[in-house]
Amino acid sequence: MRYLITGGAGFIGSHLSEELLRRGHEVFVVDDLSTGSINNIRHLKTHDRFHYTIDTCANVQLMAELVDGADRIYHLAAAVGVKLIVESPVRTIETNIRLTEIMLGLANKKKRPIFVASTSEVYGKSERFPFNEDGDLVMGATTKGRWSYACSKAIDEFLAIAYYKEKKLPTVVARLFNTVGPRQTGQYGMVVPTFVRQALAGRPITVFGDGQQSRCFTHVADVVRALIDIMDHDGARGQVFNIGNTEEISMNDLAKLVRELTGSRSEIVHIPYEKAYEEGFEDMPRRVPDLTKIGAAIGWKPTIPLTRILNDVIEGYRISGGEPMGSSVPVPRLEV
């Protein structure tokens, strides 16, 4: 089949492209390289079933042509990372909502099945753990910039579901929980590559807040498997799914584990949120998914434990000399 991936030069998009090619499909990628990198797809450029265009999804004429030739669409293009979100809220809101609106509109004209990537951020300040897809979303005040990302992705979800209900467009939405692995950069605030880079360089490992906040990390190989399988499942149309891991770890313990696995002697230091981001920044104490729904739909569950996830990231940084991971980094093969 012919797949179109927006944001395909990004961390997740590049791994998805790689796996779809391995399964024999043809892949078309569009990315403006605002947060993605050509290095992520450099090793795919000579593949006869891989095609890429450096442009924005806001180029409606281009996207209409690509949608017309696609069998399925993955819309991954978005503003990502807490740092970018706090520093550029206008870009975050406009990018996430406008591009999703364009892609859903074009997909609807041809009735092409489309996947819309969302985020665990949409659960906001909810304290009903684990997070269930039908649970309430609890947002902070509009004066707190960090919630602009969550709200913009929630609107994307509403729009995708509305297209399914009103216009019968086959849409699937997934909320991703802290996807990690080779090629991910810490440039936009992603915690694992940041900790790993700091530890390998012997610099202080910077933990924001008191470090008691916990997260669950999922290997990109597990996530890609879920993304492909959920689009193959007809019963997923018009639905929202969590994709993540249930193995929680606090940021303090994560910093210690990274230090141990890298053999680093880095000091672990705490930085107040207001210095790291902005005055009045709000964070969530926990973020853990309920995976019952996706498990029932396609039998999916994560298979790669946290220690292996971290070792893959560490190996990637060592291979690349401390730079963000490139195409030379090995990743687990996925079974069809």
Question: Keywords, please?
Answer:
Rossmann fold, about 325 residues, two-stranded parallel sheet, disordered C terminus
Description:
- The chain has 336 residues and is of the alpha/beta class.
- It has one domain: NAD(P)-binding Rossmann-like Domain (Rossmann fold).
- Helices cover 39% and strands 16% of the residues.
- It has a 7-stranded parallel beta sheet with strand order 3-2-1-4-5-6-11, sandwiched between helices. The protein has a two-stranded parallel ribbon with strand order 7-10. It has a two-stranded parallel sheet with strand order 8-13.
- Strand 1 (2-6), helix 1 and strand 2 (26-31) form a beta-alpha-beta unit.
- Helix 6 (191-201) crosses helix 11 and helix 8 packs across helix 11.
- The longest helix is centred in the first third of the chain and has 22 residues, at 89-110.
Main sheet: which strands, in order across?
Answer: 3-2-1-4-5-6-11
Q: Tell me the helix content.
A: 25-40%
- Mass-distribution shape: globular
Sketch the major β-sheet.
Answer: 7 strands, parallel
Provide the gyration radius in Å.
19 Å
Low-confidence stretches: 325-336
What is the beta-strand fraction? Answer: 15-25%
* Count of individual domains: 1
Task: Just give the CATH class.
Answer: Alpha Beta
Cα end-to-end separation: 15 Å
Helix-strand pattern, N to C? EHEEHEHHEHEEHEEEHEEHEHHH
Give me the CATH fold name.
Answer: Rossmann fold
User: What's the rounded overall pLDDT mean?
Assistant: 92
Number of strands: 13
Please count the helical segments.
11
